[in-house]
């Protein structure tokens, strides 16, 4: 066989050799969808296809995902029905005002959805609640405006078949979940171990000075974000009996903190006079401990034993610094070497502390206490600019579709508006809606073809539900199998969503050629129109997103330094990891050196923020002598002007940091008390990391150019990598 046919056959493997678990999902959902359709026909509801459609919207591959999505879909349905009734009741005979308020409502739901906690993705079911509100609001009001006297009956009918689909899917999926709690707890443990192992491998490479040890840090951060999002669904499966999910989420966040501490250590190891034979021996011992840790977690060894070994390593690091303090140094060079050694020991202590915290949270997720009140919420970062953009984009698109209907008096105009509203509700909260709409259009075209074959050929003469179920079930099964194949997931969502609408089952009539084409044409034109609007009106601009992200990072530095921001280590790390992953996800066709420069800048900004937080804590330490406190106050004051605006005081901030380092070194040389010297070494460790990051990533931190991309020469881009 030639390469072309072989490649095509391999691409169709999802159809003829599917994964058994996902094949079971497709079969289960198809049967549930047909059951919902049969009950809706038996109840003689006006549009029974919405019951089958709802099953496909709610059904997911796991029990936790299905329940989470069903809950938020139900919430969105209630909000959408109430809003739709209110709209039709308020303006039953003013078409232009109706379209305007319809567009405003869809835009409002998109804005609220943008503020929901979690990533802006199709798997964020809090955002899905607002999406469900939007399209329920649209279908209720668009059906009701044609017959406003019966709006309540229409809305109750729509709510009934949506509720029917939700209840059936949630009930039937629960029948196939045996031993769910045990499997979920095992999955949580595997999630942590699968993330910790590559992180420890990367850190082990740093400890021995291996080149490119942190090359896979991008994949690790992406994995942390993805798995952290999935913990929510495990919580649903476990119920609210304990806080295992909170501990698992905190454990994953602590792995991100661990990586940040490892990057600080790598920065300090590159400084002159930083390493000696004693440090290399300690680093080798810690490396061996880290590499053996995943195997120890898989065995029956108790967590207390592992934590005790880490605590022993921590004490050894502290004791070596104390022994250096008690040894008289012959000259300034030797004293400088002791200081550098103490800074590295401080970085090792913080690295071990971060790992101990991650392991403690992991153990609590495996064996949650009976009176545990720990809570680690899903963090939400409100971006008003993004929310307004999403709202305007969806509102203008819907209003434009309404104007087309009013100006053309198209008989199928309301159907056209309905499909536009569905697309805007689903995708306007995404950062790149045009790409999602393209994939959705491909799935809709497949649904048009499949429905055409069913309506015009296979079911043209059928009069029984058995024939309807046989042919439509076969078509739905194909869509379910495609959903399990990642490259086809979004087109499959569109296919499963629109297929029941295009089939249009009813007790009173059949979908003939006229009805079919009057439904298929508005669908295709609606998706084409929405895709075009996403590319024309407020389109996604990757360069602007990168600059906005950079400006926010510089502004965060300013806020943390002046003490106004109530930030914690977890909040700083989670926000910057979110930025890191968003930038990787939305990089598109941007040249790799530019993306790498921004990724490096985000990680550098995160570490500067973490060290500013540590300096703020050191300033509050009563053991800090007044001269050192004054030096830290000056650097904080200088950093507080680092606002990210044009001419962002980059040079003066870097010089002030280096001057503060010199003053604290003088204080450390004149200090003999061990506890006070520990505080000064901790402050010097943070200042050295800040100065090195500001110097190494000058292009990112110097805000004299509004965009980083054009200001980079090829040589500078190479240096940032």
Automatic annotation (TrEMBL):
The keyword Plastid does not apply. It comes from Gluconobacter oxydans. One of its GO terms (molecular function) is transmembrane transporter activity. One of its GO terms (cellular component) is plasma membrane. Keywords: Membrane, Transmembrane, Transmembrane helix. Pfam families: FUSC. The chain crosses the membrane at residues 22-43, 72-91, 97-116, 161-180, 403-427, 439-458, 470-493, 514-534. This is Transporter. It comes from the Bacteria.
């Amino acid at each position: 066989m030639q390469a072309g046919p072989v490649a095509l056959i391999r691409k169709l493997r999802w159809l003829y050799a599917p994964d058994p678990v996902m094949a079971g999902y497709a079969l289960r959902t198809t049967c549930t969808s047909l059951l919902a359709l049969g009950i809706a026909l038996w109840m003689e509801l006006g549009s029974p296809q919405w019951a089958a459609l709802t099953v496909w919207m709610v059904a997911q591959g796991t029990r936790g995902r299905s329940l989470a999505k069903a809950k938020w879909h139900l919430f969105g349905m209630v909000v959408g029905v109430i809003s739709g009734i209110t709209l039709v009741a308020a303006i039953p005979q003013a078409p232009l005002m109706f379209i305007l308020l319809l567009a405003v409502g869809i835009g409002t739901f998109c804005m609220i959805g943008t503020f929901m906690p979690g990533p802006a993705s199709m798997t964020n079911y809090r955002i899905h609640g607002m999406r469900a509100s939007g399209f329920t609001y649209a279908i209720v009001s668009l059906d009701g405006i044609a017959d406003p006297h019966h709006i309540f009956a229409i809305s109750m009918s729509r709510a009934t078949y949506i509720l029917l689909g939700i209840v059936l899917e949630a009930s039937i999926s629960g029948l196939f979940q045996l031993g769910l709690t045990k499997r979920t707890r095992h999955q949580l443990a595997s999630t942590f171990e699968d993330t910790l192992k590559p992180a420890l491998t990367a850190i082990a490479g740093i400890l021995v000075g291996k080149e490119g040890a942190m090359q896979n840090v991008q994949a690790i951060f992406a994995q942390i974000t993805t798995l952290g999002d999935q913990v929510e669904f495990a919580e649903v499966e476990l119920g609210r009996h304990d806080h295992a999910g909170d501990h698992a989420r905190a454990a994953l966040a602590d792995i991100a903190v661990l990586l940040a501490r490892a990057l600080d250590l790598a920065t300090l190891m590159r400084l002159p006079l930083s390493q000696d034979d004693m440090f290399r021996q300690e680093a080798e011992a810690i490396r061996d401990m880290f590499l053996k840790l995943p195997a120890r977690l898989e065995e029956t060894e108790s967590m207390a034993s592992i934590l005790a070994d880490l605590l022993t390593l921590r004490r050894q690091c502290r004791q070596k610094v104390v022994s250096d303090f008690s040894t008289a140094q012959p000259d300034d060079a030797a004293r400088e070497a002791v200081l550098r050694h103490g800074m590295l020991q401080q970085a090792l202590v913080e690295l071990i502390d971060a790992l101990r915290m991650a392991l403690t949270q992991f153990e609590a997720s495996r064996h949650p206490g009976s009176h545990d009140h720990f809570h680690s919420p899903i963090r939400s970062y409100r971006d008003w600019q993004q929310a307004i953009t999403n709202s305007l984009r969806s509102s203008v698109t819907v209003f434009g579709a309404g104007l087309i209907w009013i100006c053309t008096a198209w008989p199928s105009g309301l159907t056209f508006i309905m499909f536009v509203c569905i697309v805007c509700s689903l995708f306007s909260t995404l950062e790149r809606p045009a790409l999602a709409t393209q994939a959705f259009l491909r799935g809709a075209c497949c649904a048009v073809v499949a429905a055409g074959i069913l309506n015009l050929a296979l079911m043209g003469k059928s009069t029984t539900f058995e024939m309807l179920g046989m042919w439509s079930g076969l078509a739905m099964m194909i869509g379910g199998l495609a959903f399990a194949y990642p490259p086809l997931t979004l087109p499959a969502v569109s296919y499963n969503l629109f297929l029941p609408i295009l089939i249009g089952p009813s007790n009173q009539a059949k979908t003939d050629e006229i009805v079919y084409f009057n439904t298929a044409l508005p669908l295709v034109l609606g998706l084409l129109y929405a895709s075009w609007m996403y590319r024309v009106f407020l389109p996604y601009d990757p360069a602007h997103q990168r600059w906005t992200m950079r400006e926010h990072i510089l502004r965060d530095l300013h806020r943390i330094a002046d003490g106004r921001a109530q930030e914690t280590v977890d909040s700083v790390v989670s926000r910057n990891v979110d930025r890191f992953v968003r930038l990787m996800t939305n990089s598109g066709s941007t040249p790799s050196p530019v993306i790498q420069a921004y990724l490096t800048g985000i990680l550098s900004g995160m570490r500067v923020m973490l060290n500013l937080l540590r300096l703020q804590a050191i300033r509050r330490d009563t053991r800090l002598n007044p001269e050192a406190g004054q030096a830290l106050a000056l650097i904080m004051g200088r950093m507080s002007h680092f606002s990210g605006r044009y001419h962002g005081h980059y040079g003066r901030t870097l010089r002030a940091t280096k001057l503060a380092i010199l003053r604290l070194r003088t204080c450390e040389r004149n200090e003999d008390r061990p506890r006070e010297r520990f505080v000064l070494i901790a402050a010097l460790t943070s200042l050295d990391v800040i100065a090195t990051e500001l110097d190494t990533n000058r292009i990112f931190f110097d805000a004299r150019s509004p965009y980083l991309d054009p200001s980079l020469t090829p040589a500078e881009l190479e240096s940032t990598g």
